[in-house]
Amino acid sequence: MRHEMKEAFSSYPQVQKPEVVHRIGALMSSLPKLEARVAQFMLLNVADLGFETGASIAHKAGTSEVTVGRLLRRLGYKGMPGLKRALRESQIAGHAATDGDGAAGAANGGLKTVLDAEIRALVTLFEQFDGARWDRLVEAIGTANRVYVTGFQSVRGAAEDFVRRLSLARDDVRFLSAHDSMLGEWIGGGEAGSNDSQMGDCLIVIDVVPYAREASELCELCRDTGRNIIVVSDEFCHWAQEFTDLIIHAPSRSGLFLESSGALVAALNVIVHAVAQRDPEETQRRLEHWQATTRRLKMF
Questions:
Q1: How many other CB atoms are there within 10 angstroms of residue 246's CB atom?
Q2: What is the DSSP letter of 46?
Q3: Which candidate, 141, 147, 96, 100, places its Cα nearest to that of 277?
Q4: Left, alpha or beta for 84 (phi > 0: left; psi -120 to 50: alpha)?
């Protein structure tokens, strides 16, 4: 996937990652839990770290300022001033490397910044579609007895569209609205482990940060009843790690009036594709059946 993305965006300047990204990547697997949470926040919001303080990072990552300071020392920075100085140096080097490249300059006025941010978001997103964790995520969806999908308020439409698309790739995909159905779909499951079939159920939560409280409570209920959890969210989601490591972060901050949903929708489209590719012959059979049905009803 990474190789394909380099070719797809070869006409644009390559994104130069700040040194802090590489330092965190080298240490992430060995970090204590709370420091790892701060490190994840920094990775997902590296473009805004220059505007943060130790206190603001601690608040947003749900840790203490002491934890932030401890992580910065571990990374080799003398507090936030040291980190910001390193970020400025990386930014200067990045501008020097891309100065004079007019490919992205074709964008109109201030939208060039938005375009650059959207490209970075997609690159960041597609880098997650690789490795053992991605394989487990696809396998969890492909092999589940039932797949439930939920999304709240502004992302509900994207969640409902995802249900329709995923239903073409596999059986028994259901949109779950806790408010509308009062979780009638989960009646009879009892306590975790009391129903073997529910252990194969999977909940996909499509979330953006304003609704994280409700999403996290639903995940807690899901975990207690023995169902697998997958979270597709934006770069501000830090609670999901408490419930699962099957997480896709789709960056949403690109400078638009409202947060961009482009990367989020792209993530959902790729998930459908990956599930369909697990068994191409079965997918083709399903498509032919679906097309025959829709022709009979003259839907298209």
A1: 21
A2: G
A3: 141
A4: alpha
Contacts of 79 (CB under 8 A, 6+ apart): 54, 69, 72
Domains assigned to the chain:
2-106 (1.10.10.10), 131-296 (3.40.50.10490)
Cα–Cα distance for residue pair 244/260, rounded to 1 Å: 25
Residue with tokens 């779950």: 176
Q: Vertex 294, ends 288 and 296: CA angle to 5°?
A: 105
**Partner residues linked to 148 by β-bridges:** 174, 203
pLDDT in tens, the chain (300 residues): 333 433 333 333 444 678 888 898 888 888 898 998 899 888 888 888 888 899 999 988 889 999 999 999 999 999 999 898 888 877 666 554 544 444 444 445 678 888 888 888 898 899 899 889 999 999 999 999 999 999 988 889 999 999 999 999 999 999 998 777 777 878 765 444 444 445 589 999 998 765 556 788 888 888 888 889 999 998 877 778 889 999 999 988 888 888 889 999 999 999 999 999 999 999 999 989 888 888 888 776
User: From CA 205, how far away is CA 216, in angstroms rounded?
Assistant: 9
Q: Determine phi and psi for 13, rounding to 5 degrees.
A: -60, 140
One-letter identity of residue 96: A
**How much is the pTM?**
0.67
Residue 247 DSSP SS3 = strand
Residue type, 186: W
Task: Provide the b/e sequence for 9-20 (b: ≥16 CB within 10 Å).
Answer: beebeeeeebbb
